[in-house]
Specification:
By secondary structure, this protein is of the alpha/beta class. The protein has two domains: 175 residues, Bordetella uptake gene, domain 1 (D-Maltodextrin-Binding Protein, domain 2); 124 residues, Periplasmic binding protein-like II (D-Maltodextrin-Binding Protein, domain 2, 3-Layer(aba) Sandwich), CATH 3.40.190. The protein is built from twelve helices and ten strands. Helix 3 links the parallel strand 1 and strand 2. It is globular, with a radius of gyration of 23 Å. 42% of the residues are buried.
Length: 324
């Protein structure tokens, strides 16, 4: 027989929120949010993550962030750590979306692109073709003429190597221009720039944010940026499309969370990112550190990444880079 005392206690307990509901309602109170960066420190994604960790707390109940670099296997190690994390709101991933689509085409990967929770894209860093300041290659038309004269007549160094956004841009350019390049893959932008400046390669392929400094110093020239429109920091450099090459490519960088993140928490993250992205101080510092911004939020971001995945699959079907 249940006593009135026990019945009252049970009834009282039923009125209390569940621990999970309490955690969702009060998130992010309790502990710091880990922001996983799947690449080494000091790169473009790391820079973006640390800038967000500085400004986002003002829009997220003064939450604390800890940036953790989990580099390895071209981003695969960190991407898998993000996907496998507990969906409690205390793990956020700073990612390059192209790697989420490309790596599973090359080798087994433990994530499903469609299952991530998409929070916000912040950066879209277009790829570009760069030459030494005194290079005889004058513009994209001249480059095409020289490359078309003979297969592999022009050497191209891709800063991030085989399968990267730089390499995929080169492959797309070869198709659009009807040429065959001599490809030299590099393991880092600094190495590609070194060989470009010492005339070991004719053209280097890397992102606009990485090349702005040397361009302003007059040590390199940019033949074209593979962007839908000119980045205002390089407003005098035409796009590929403006020069008759219908190619767009680069590195979209944003934030995802593990599958299963409660909608209430995801909504708070998206709202905070949206407000932060309009903060004049954030915008000024992003411009200062040469981050080409392209904010996209929530489901719009998810759909953008899924469309990018289809483009990567199509290119891989035609030009399967892992097969040489």
């Amino acid at each position: 027989m249940i006593s009135r005392r026990h019945l009252s206690a049970a009834a009282f307990a039923a009125l209390l929120p569940s621990p999970l509901a309490w955690a969702q309602e009060n998130w992010p109170a309790g502990r710091a949010i880990e922001m996983i960066v799947p690449y080494p420190p000091a790169g473009g994604i790391d820079l973006m993550a640390r800038l967000v960790a500085k400004y986002l707390p003002a829009y997220l109940d003064k939450a604390q962030f800890v940036v953790t670099n989990r580099a390895g296997a071209g981003g695969q190690t960190g991407n898998e750590a993000i996907f496998a994390a507990r969906p409690d709101g205390f793990t956020l991933g700073a990612i390059a979306s192209l790697s989420l689509s490309s790596i599973p085409l090359e080798r087994p990967a433990r994530w499903k692109l469609e299952d991530f929770v998409y929070v916000a894209n912040l950066v879209d860093d277009p790829g570009a073709f760069w030459v030494k300041a005194d290079s005889p290659i004058k513009d994209m038309a001249d480059l095409r003429r020289r490359a078309a004269a003979q297969a592999e007549a022009v050497s191209f160094g891709t800063a991030a190597g085989v399968g990267s956004d730089d390499h995929q841009l080169l492959l797309a350019y070869e198709e659009a221009a009807g040429v065959k390049a001599l490809h030299s893959p590099y393991n880092g932008t600094a190495l590609a720039i070194r060989d470009l400046l010492s005339s070991q390669i004719d053209v280097a392929v890397y992102n606009v944010s990485e090349g702005l400094g040397l361009l302003r110093e007059g040590r390199t020239r940019c033949l074209g940026q593979a962007a839908p429109a000119r980045w205002k920091a390089m407003a005098d450099v035409p796009t590929f499309r403006e020069q008759g090459i219908d190619v767009v490519g680069g590195s979209m960088r944003g934030f995802v969370a593990p599958p299963g993140l409660p909608g209430a928490i995801a909504g708070k993250l998206v709202d905070a990112m949206r407000r932060m992205a309009a903060d004049p101080a954030f915008l000024a510092e992003a411009e200062k550190v040469n981050l080409p911004l392209r904010p996209i939020f929530g489901d719009d971001y998810r759909q953008t990444v899924l469309r990018e995945q289809e483009a990567v699959k199509d290119l891989f079907a035609r030009r399967p880079w892992s097969q040489g």
